[in-house]
């Protein structure tokens, strides 16, 4: 008996040692990913560039355009690199200080304080034609791109207190209620200022014809910013669709949802109406995908569902909403890649197209848009039907043989790291071992078509920035996201805590 106990004790110790070894190996691998990814972002910001570039070719040539989201990605990646001990405090300060000075010098729309969507990273000029071409760029104010910049500025106020005043000065001049349509209770996608449009080339002017109306999309970050700044009422959070209703009027959406209406009463925190409360009826809809109840995103992409979670602890603040939905969304993407389409790999999100350009990728049934993002180059779509509604009675569910040209992007696995760490690490390892997708200097290339190994040999500031955020959170046990979360918690957490998604019980 004593001998048996000794054997069992020995086996237990071996298991503990093996687990520690695996954990150390995983940390070393993630440290390598962080170091190489950070190197790519450094290369996208040559010393003679005023701003970080949108992306970079495999030979190290940066692009000749950039956006507010790219600038934001560079700022938070710099702070992440500091927190992961890849650079010193002094270097992080210098890099962020330079970027803040550059931002302050940029032309922008003065009535709203909003930045244009495309600038030259070399000198900060607003682009009206694409570099090295005659293609027209119509100057545009993007509500979501400006929101990501506001997030990065907020992070600076907490992470580098010596630069808080400079960051706050820019942040406080940005009006997000400029985009807010009070009648709909939603944000417009953006605005074309008439005074800066090139003449005679067909540029629009005014607000976009659409609103951002879906909760589970990366665009919800503008909702967090607008509410936290006191520029829009908290009830706006419940004006965003979980799915659209289950009637034929809404039968254009991906599939017929399950769910029911729930009314939430939300206190207003606007200075103009401090004591008002507003009841808001929400259709707590959800889709059923391969026996999983899920609140879909707009197009079924990983970054739509999970990018905001990199900066806001949604799963913690909304235990009966995001805390349920985020891990399910990851599992659904995994299920599609490994079992439905049988690609052997998973992780679908907008990225550089291996065939050239940029394209949205996702899992079609996880998106509200019936013509939404697909996981493959040949755009294999699904139609689950919608009762007997006109045009939606015929169903079309592809078999695995019809999914051939799957395109996987590494940043999707990093977004999933928090919710499925073993699966995400294995997927990244398999991609690295099976394809020429890893650059030893700059980390993962942007995507690969897994049927033929064709790699999009580019690096994008946004995608590399998401990787840096995911790694910083994972390796600091979520502490990195506190830089932003601590500022907005009082305004946003109560909204998440009061809600139970309709998909919760299943």
Could you characterize the architecture of this molecule?
With 506 residues, this protein is an alpha+beta fold. It has a single domain (29-497), classed as Glycosyltransferase (Alpha/alpha barrel), CATH 1.50.10.140. Helix content is 37%, strand content 12%. The protein is built from 13 helices and 21 strands. The protein has helices at residues 2-43, 68-83, 89-105, 143-159, 164-171, 220-228, 302-306, 314-317, 322-340, 410-415, 421-434, 461-475, 482-497; strands at residues 55-57, 108-109, 114-115, 141-142, 180-181, 186-188, 190-192, 206-207, 211-212, 261-267, 277-283, 287-289, 292-294, 351-352, 358-359, 407-408, 438-439, 443-444, 447-449, 454-456, 458-460. The strands form 9 sheets. The chain has a 3-stranded antiparallel sheet with strand order 4-7-8. A hairpin with a 3-residue loop joins β17 (438-439) and β18 (443-444). α2 packs antiparallel against α3 and α2 runs parallel beside α12 (461-475). The relative contact order is 0.13.
């Amino acid at each position: 008996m004593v001998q048996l106990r000794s054997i069992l004790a020995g086996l237990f110790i071996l298991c503990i040692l093996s687990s520690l070894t695996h954990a150390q190996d995983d940390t070393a691998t993630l440290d390598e990913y962080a170091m190489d990814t950070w190197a790519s972002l450094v290369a996208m910001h040559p010393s003679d560039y005023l701003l970080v570039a949108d992306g970079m070719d495999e030979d190290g040539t940066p692009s000749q355009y950039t956006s507010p989201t790219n600038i934001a990605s560079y700022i938070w990646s710099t702070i992440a690199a500091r927190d992961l001990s890849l650079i010193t405090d002094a270097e992080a300060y210098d890099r962020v200080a330079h970027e803040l000075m550059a931002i302050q010098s940029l032309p922008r729309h003065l009535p709203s304080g909003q930045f244009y969507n495309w600038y030259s990273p070399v000198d900060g000029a607003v682009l009206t034609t694409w570099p090295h071409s005659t293609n027209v760029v119509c100057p545009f104010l993007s509500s979501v791109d400006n929101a990501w910049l506001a997030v990065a500025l907020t992070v600076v106020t907490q992470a580098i207190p010596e630069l808080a005043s400079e960051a706050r000065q820019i942040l406080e001049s940005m009006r997000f209620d400029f985009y807010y349509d009070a009648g709909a209770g939603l944000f417009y996608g953006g605005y074309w200022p008439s005074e800066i449009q090139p003449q005679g080339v067909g540029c629009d002017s005014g607000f976009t014809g659409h609103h951002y109306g879906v909760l589970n999309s990366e665009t919800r970050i503008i909702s967090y910013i607008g509410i936290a700044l006191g520029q829009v009422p908290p009830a706006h959070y419940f004006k965003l669709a979980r799915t659209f209703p289950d009637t034929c009027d809404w039968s254009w959406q991906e599939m017929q949802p399950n769910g029911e209406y729930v009314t939430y009463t939300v206190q207003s925190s606007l200075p103009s109406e401090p004591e008002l409360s507003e009841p808001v009826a929400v259709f707590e809809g959800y889709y059923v995908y391969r026996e999983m109840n899920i609140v879909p995103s707009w197009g079924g992409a990983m970054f739509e569902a999970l990018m905001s979670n990199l900066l806001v602890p949604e799963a913690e603040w909304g235990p009966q909403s995001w805390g349920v939905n985020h891990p399910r969304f990851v599992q659904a993407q995994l299920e599609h890649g490994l079992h439905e389409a049988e690609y052997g790999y998973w992780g679908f999100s907008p990225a550089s197209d291996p065939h050239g350009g940029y394209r949205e990728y996702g899992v079609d049934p996880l998106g509200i848009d019936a013509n939404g993002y697909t996981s493959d180059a040949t755009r294999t779509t699904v139609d689950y039907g919608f009762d007997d509604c006109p045009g939606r009675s015929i169903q079309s569910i592809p078999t695995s043989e019809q999914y051939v040209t799957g395109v996987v992007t590494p940043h999707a696995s990093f977004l999933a790291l928090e919710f499925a760490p073993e699966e995400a690490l294995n997927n990244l390892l398999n991609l690295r071992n099976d394809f020429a997708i890893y650059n030893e200097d700059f980390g993962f290339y942007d995507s690969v078509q897994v049927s033929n190994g064709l790699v999009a040999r580019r690096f994008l500031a946004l995608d590399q920035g998401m990787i840096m955020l995911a790694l910083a959170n994972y390796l600091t046990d979520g502490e990195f996201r506190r830089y932003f979360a601590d500022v907005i918690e009082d305004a946003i957490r109560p909204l998440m805590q009061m809600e139970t998604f309709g998909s919760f019980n299943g």
